[in-house]
Amino acid sequence: MSNPPGIKTESDKDIPVSFWQAYGETPTTAHSLMGDIVVDVAVIGGGFTGLSTAREIRSADQAQRVVVLEGNYVGYGASGRNGGFNMSLFGLEPELTMLRWGKEKTIQAQNYMKHAVHYVQDLVRTHDLKSDYQHTGMYRVAYSDAQLKRLVARMELFEKLGIADQFSFKTREQIREDVGSKKFQAAIFEAGSGILNPYKHVRELKRLAENAGAEVFENTPVTHVARNGQAIKLTTPNGTVTCKKLVIAVNAWSGFIQELPKIRSRQVPVWTAQVVTAPLSQAQWDEIGWAGRQSIEDNRQLLHYFRRTVCGRITMGGGNVILGRGKKMGRMDVPKIWNNLECHLKWLFPALKNITFDYHWGGPVSINMDMTPEIGFIGDERVIYASGCIGHGVSLTQLNGRTIADLILEKKTNLTDFWIVNRKAIRWPPGPLGSLAFNTIKGGLKLWDAFEERNLTR
User: Fold this and answer.
1) Shortest CA distance to 191 belongs to which of 137, 114, 155, 122?
2) pLDDT given at position 2
3) CA–CA distance from 159 to each of 153, 169, 172, 246, 253 (Å)?
4) In a domain, 310, yes or no
5) Domains: count for the chain
6) 307 near 83, Cβ under 8 Å?
7) What are the angstrom distances between the C-alpha of 218 and each of 108, 188, 266, 348, 376?
């Protein structure tokens, strides 16, 4: 395995920490694997997927010895860098899911994601997780008439699918009761969604996994994977793990596992950026009229997402994205994208024209060719992987952990029957063809946004 997930390199100093990481606890209990061990299940990746899987396996069967191998520290990757949206969006857009998979599978996907949101919310409540969780709801807003037209069509689709009860259409005046921006023309409001601090949350998931009896080794990158008959052997810098079953839960980093070529063709890592403001004064909050704590996404193709933090800041992410193959996986320095995010926030709220921004960062998300999440087997059902969060993975990945646990324990459940399990995926083209495909898709989305926003004053 070349440049394994989470390995520390000389370029790590160039990777900006997220706001969540900077203000979170400094890991003090991390320990690495030292020596050789034999276990029932090994999990590569200490994020939402991996830790949820480990906890669920141990909770269901305490006879299983389960280890999690994290290349850096828990919260270093996407689980400590994302926007913290516990939401029900599956894949890229419901219209695309409907077009690609049809009505019944779109309904099943929406129900899975609704279950996922409740799964996270219940986990926080049941175990009193210190995740700064707030079940505030989310607006999907339109800036232009063309975006508004698509919002109306989406509500019609939800009604056709019989899931419109989860959503409500909001007029400009209704939105402004919660958020005062004059740029919002209308919105779809999803009441059943929430926000959390992703870094705090993943550190809490580590605690739960360990309390359930799983062993979590940080600073333990996997450098080699080999099948030896019925056993699977993982090599790390200071020891080996021999296991009966393996879960690969590194998502966007999956392409670096050279020994398992199938996984490399299933997804590509795409970097997305985020910024966070300095704390706003109460006068500034009053002036922009953001009285509620509802989170917001816009109805662009290359969408923006933004929300309040519990410490009185605004974080915004999204917009332009970058293919993260090869050396680009090692760092992210994108001042132009960060500047565009800052300008967009000030465009939404002119009263913040002099606001400063304290943190700029980014991270890779896992994108499948057909924009659909998947859980798959490699060779046989002893090796399972998950990929394709499409940037909407907070709730998805955690419920996927429960689904993967059921598969590992050979249980047949409603979750294991979900159609993303071992589905037939479209392979991502290798090398330059893959880059060409990505840039063609992104270019088309940029043109789409430009056309729909051609009459907006920036």
Assistant:
1) 137
2) 32
3) 10, 12, 21, 41, 37
4) yes
5) 1
6) yes
7) 36, 41, 26, 41, 25
